[in-house]
Each structure stands twice: as structure tokens, then as C-alpha cells.
Design brief:
101 residues; mainly beta; Immunoglobulin-like; four-stranded mixed β-sheet; four-stranded antiparallel β-sheet; 8 strands; DUF1416
Length: 101
Amino acid sequence: MCAAPTQGQNLPAGVDVEKETVISGRVLGDDGHPVGGAFVRLLDGSGEFTAEVVSSGTGDFRFFAAPGAWTVRALSSSGNGTAQIQPEGNGVHTVDVLVSA
């Protein structure tokens, strides 16, 4: 069992998006339906592992990061997928990851 926290759509109380860089999104299957229980990994600009969470039942995930180039990789029983995102500043930045077998 992975110790990665399960995610939801709402930001925790006290998060100031004026001061934080948040990367959030959903894991979606080929059919466009959300994929819950996927292991979602955040890799930095050099491809190094930074963090991992488990997508919620509605496919949601969230990371607190820094501005820069990031790769989001999802691994699930429905398949795997990768997406790129490059937030340039603070705020909530959204990216969906499509997984396929």
C-alpha cells in the first residue's frame, strides 16, 4: 500500500494561491471518464521524482510546487499517461492526464 495522500478538488483551508503554486488536474481514461486510485507522480524539469499522490475517486490530484517545467505522470490499472505543465507564477495551474493501455 502506498502512503501517498488521496486528493480532492477543494484546496485545504489557509492556502493562499497568491503565494503558492498549485498544480492540479484530473486523471482521465480513453473514454473521458475519471480514473480514481491512479498513482500520480510529479517530476521536475530534469525528470527527477519529486512527489506522488493518489487520485481521488473523481480522478482529482493536486501538488504544491514551484514555478518551472514539470511533468505529471499517472500510473493506473487503466493505463499510463504523461502531461507537461510550466507554471510561470503563483496560483492554481490545471493539467489533465489522459491514460491509455
